[in-house]
Specification:
This protein is mostly beta strands. It has a single domain, classed as OB fold (Dihydrolipoamide Acetyltransferase, E2P) (Beta Barrel). It is built from one helix and ten strands; from the N terminus they run ββββββββαββ. A hairpin with a 2-residue loop joins strand 1 and strand 2. The longest helix has 7 residues. It is elongated, with a radius of gyration of 15 Å.
């Protein structure tokens, strides 16, 4: 699980659906959620999390993906198992882990030190902790 601190910059509600925008180290990220802690408001600091199987990487920016959140990262480690591979990415001071099919990583020929984009779906981000309210 990857976690990082972000600040709420905007909140939109419609019925039971919440669209929350965050500032994370100068990048804008969006979370779509059915539930939102009652003490969340603009400028609240939160700990966001994402599962390693919910992160995707690409070498190029693409308009083919319908995923709003992306971060420019670089690969700091690659570990291959029999079926899965783990890739560690760094964005500023945060380490993200991506777990995906080994064959996909080998076909794309990713290498340590390479710059890649990390993609996160709005519905895959979640708040694990409210740090100040």
């Amino acid at each position: 699980m990857s976690s990082f601190i972000a600040t709420v910059s905007q909140i939109q509600h419609h019925q039971n659906l919440h669209l929350v925008k965050f500032d994370y180290e100068g990048e804008s990220l969006t979370m779509l959620s059915l539930e939102l802690p009652s003490n969340i408001e603009v400028k609240t600091k939160v700990k966001l999390c994402i599962k390693p199987t919910d992160l995707y990487i690409s070498k190029k920016n693409t308009s083919y993906l319908s995923i709003a959140n992306k971060l420019p990262t670089h690969i700091i480690n690659i570990t291959h198992g029999n079926l899965l591979s783990s890739i560690k990415l760094k964005y500023k001071n945060t380490i993200f882990e991506v777990i995906t099919a080994r064959q996909s990583i080998l076909e794309e020929n990713y290498s340590i030190g390479e710059n890649v984009l990390a993609w996160m779906s709005e519905s895959d981000l979640f708040i694990s902790e409210v740090l100040d309210a």
